[in-house]
Write a structure and sequence with these properties.
heterodimer; A: alpha+beta; SH3 type barrels; Arc Repressor Mutant, subunit A; seven-stranded mixed β-sheet; five-stranded mixed β-sheet; B: alpha+beta; two-stranded antiparallel sheet; 5 strands; globular
Chain lengths: 531, 140
């Protein structure tokens, strides 16, 4: 039997690179079928094409390696034969002569030369021999089942195929579906103007492609329906008036100009210049502390996207999100939020778990936030630091939302007061509380308008973060007799006046000698108490 | 000359086999004896010439051809594989010999032979374990 390399074909599929020949095959297929295909359909075409190629290669290889030795056959001098019983070694026929054995009768003896130069003799033209009916399993017979290839390699092949398709221009994409540009049906401007009017009448949308086609009265033969859908989708995609807002696998259109302002541009409270990823060099405990703050500015898009799905997550509101009516898109929240391949903005719905009232919201992927919850926050009497729970449903674009409901009672909470000079003062005051909260991050805001004015005033000014940190530490340190300030309290407080990622705050604390780390994430101003 | 093993009295676990070389040396009629064990077809073929004759021997597993005495190979590779090769009510020595031929002459002890032959092991040992050698059956 052959020595066998069981993983040979797996190695092939694991290392497969998409070539121009593959792309040509995909284009040919789409030309032939005249129907758009999604990435999985294209992947199946690719796998089938490669399997056919491999089968041809395998046959050529076998022909080159020679026939498998069978005693019943005869072989010409010079022919190549493979001998399964001799570890599939290959030999060349040197001579043939009549066999000599009265007990066997007529047969031939074929002399062969193996690759190492040894000569051996084998019976040929001998019909009565067990080897004639023996079945061999060669290396090439190892199962290379398209289903198994799909199961094992589809995710990596899909990624490779997507990347390759993005780099070419012959095939164009709508959501996750591809088609040759040259075969598209022309959708004239009149239809697009009409589509705008239709979406306008639906308050911008969202509208799926089928109802949109119906309202446009775009009819076609059933066999061309998918092609017409694709062509209309493409025309809408290329027109800046329209925005595709569906989750993965669903195409929905919205009028860009009717999208909420908070979708088109991040509210000032959550606006930021850049993300500040958590540094690898910080100690494990600090990393966990900063990670758990669940700030969208702490994570790269890859970190946010590479998460496993869960049923529900809990999010603690910071002032910027509370004020914006938003929640962050982070590795935590993204475990229940819907994905989308292309859409920058995804139209989603929350359902209030208690009242079952729907809440329209948007995922803004370019800035990693979900907006549209301002009214709901107010209805729930939430404050910065309140905990909310988001649960997935069967529909990717719909999630349940709830706050940790509490009977109204009063708790001692850090409260932001605005002085006559516009300066902020933190005081511990008893405040009515309606929902569960994170004690360190909870901050009562009695004067929201006053704070809004401060944010507006600060917009045009380039105030150094260090001075804000010092001001906040001064304020917070007055709330306890040791004058120590915990990192999380400081993070929550400074975000009341400026959008500050945890890592940026930590850097300020770590690099200023006037700030002393006293352990357990508590900090102390060096001259505190000297005043 | 007796070998050392010949001087040790065989027991129930002593392995035996057919020593064709010993038989060839000791018995000029060994070929005639072997022919009688062959199937009717090959009896007819090999009975015509009892002289040793080199021929092409075909390995039943690999198809490889070597030169050698065709009689033993035909008996082992063909005739012994025919139905009815081992017959009931045959002399014990013949049956034991045939068991070895069917077994590709792999060594067997009296207990193992008893299972195949259906006779008591000590009866078999008393028959083949004496100083007299029947059909080349000797301790290994």
């Amino acid at each position: 039997m052959g020595s066998g390399n069981y993983n040979a074909w797996k190695t092939y599929w694991a290392n497969l690179e998409i070539t121009t020949s593959d792309l040509q095959q995909l284009a040919n297929h789409l030309f032939e079928k005249e129907e758009p295909l999604n990435i999985d359909g294209l992947l199946q075409v690719l796998i089938d094409h490669r399997l056919k190629e491999r089968e041809v290669e395998r046959k050529l290889k076998l022909e080159d390696a020679g026939e498998v030795y069978l005693p019943s056959k005869s072989y010409e001098v010079g022919a190549k034969i493979r001998f399964p019983e001799y570890d599939w070694k290959q030999a060349t026929v040197v001579s043939n002569r009549p066999g000599d054995n009265v007990a066997i009768g007529i047969f031939s003896v074929t002399e062969v030369e193996f690759e190492d130069g040894t000569h051996r003799y084998f019976a040929t033209n001998l019909s009565d021999h067990a080897l004639n009916t023996k079945l061999y399993k060669t290396d090439d017979d190892d199962i290379e089942d398209p289903v198994e290839i799909q199961n094992i390699f589809a995710p990596s092949l899909r990624t490779k195929l997507r990347k390759t398709l993005e780099k070419q221009s012959e095939l164009i994409r709508i959501a996750d579906t591809w088609f040759p540009r040259s075969l598209l049906i022309d959708i004239n401007k009149g239809y697009l103007n009409l589509a705008e009017a239709i979406l306008d009448s639906h308050e911008g949308g969202p509208l799926g492609i089928e109802p949109l086609m119906k309202e446009l009265e775009l009819n076609t033969e059933p066999q061309s329906k998918k092609l017409l859908e694709f062509s209309l989708n493409y025309a809408l995609q290329e027109d800046p008036r329209f925005d595709e807002v569906g989750t993965t696998g669903e195409i929905s259109w919205f009028l860009k100009r009717l999208e909420p302002e908070s979708v088109l541009e991040p509210p000032i409270y959550i606006r930021s210049n850049a993300i500040v990823p958590l540094a690898d060099q910080i100690d494990e405990e600090s990393y966990k502390l900063l990670y758990d703050l669940d700030d969208e500015l702490s994570f790269t898009n890859e970190e946010i996207d590479e998460v496993d799905r869960v049923d529900s997550v809990t999010i603690t509101l910071t002032y910027p999100h509370w004020r914006s009516g938003s929640i962050p898109v982070t590795p935590n929240s993204n475990r229940v939020l819907p994905s989308a391949l292309e859409s920058e903005n995804i139209k989603i719905s929350f359902i209030d778990k208690q009242t079952q009232q729907p809440i329209s919201a948007w995922v803004v992927r370019s800035h990693n936030y979900v907006v549209g919850l301002k009214d709901w926050f107010e209805q729930q009497n939430l404050i910065p630091g309140s905990n909310i729970e988001i649960s997935a449903t069967k529909h990717p674009g719909t999630m349940l939302i709830s706050s940790e409901k509490k009977r109204s009672n009063k708790e001692w909470i850090k409260t932001v007061l605005i002085g006559a000079d516009g300066g902020l003062v933190f005081a511990l005051l008893r405040q009515p509380i309606y929902a569960g909260f994170n004690e360190r991050m909870a901050i009562a805001i009695p004067d929201r308008d006053g704070l809004d004015k401060i944010w507006q005033d600060r917009l045009g000014r380039n105030i150094p973060i260090k001075s804000d940190v010092f001001r906040m530490m001064n304020e917070l340190s007055k709330l306890n007799s040791q004058h120590h300030v915990h990192f999380v309290d400081l993070y929550a407080a400074i975000n009341v006046i400026r959008r500050t990622p945890p890592m940026e705050l930590l850097e300020v604390l770590a690099t200023n000698p006037e700030i002393i780390h006293v352990g357990d994430h508590y900090y102390h101003l060096a001259d505190q108490g000297k005043e | 000359m007796l070998s050392k093993s010949s001087l040790i009295k065989p027991g129930l676990t002593t392995k035996f086999r057919v020593d064709f070389d010993w038989w060839k040396l000791q018995d000029r009629n060994w070929r005639n004896s072997l022919v009688t064990f062959m199937c009717p077809t090959h009896q007819a073929i090999f009975a015509q010439s009892t002289a040793a004759q080199e021929m092409d021997l075909v390995n039943p597993d690999t198809g490889e051809v070597t030169r050698g005495d065709g009689l033993i190979q035909t008996l082992v590779d063909h005739c012994a594989r025919q139905e009815g090769f081992i017959t009931p009510n045959a002399p014990l020595v013949d049956t034991v010999f045939k068991v070895f031929i069917v077994n590709q002459n792999q060594p067997l002890n009296s207990l193992e032979l008893a299972e195949r032959v259906g006779k008591p092991a000590d009866t078999i040992l008393r028959t083949i374990g004496t100083t007299r050698v029947y059909k080349g059956i000797r301790p290994v």
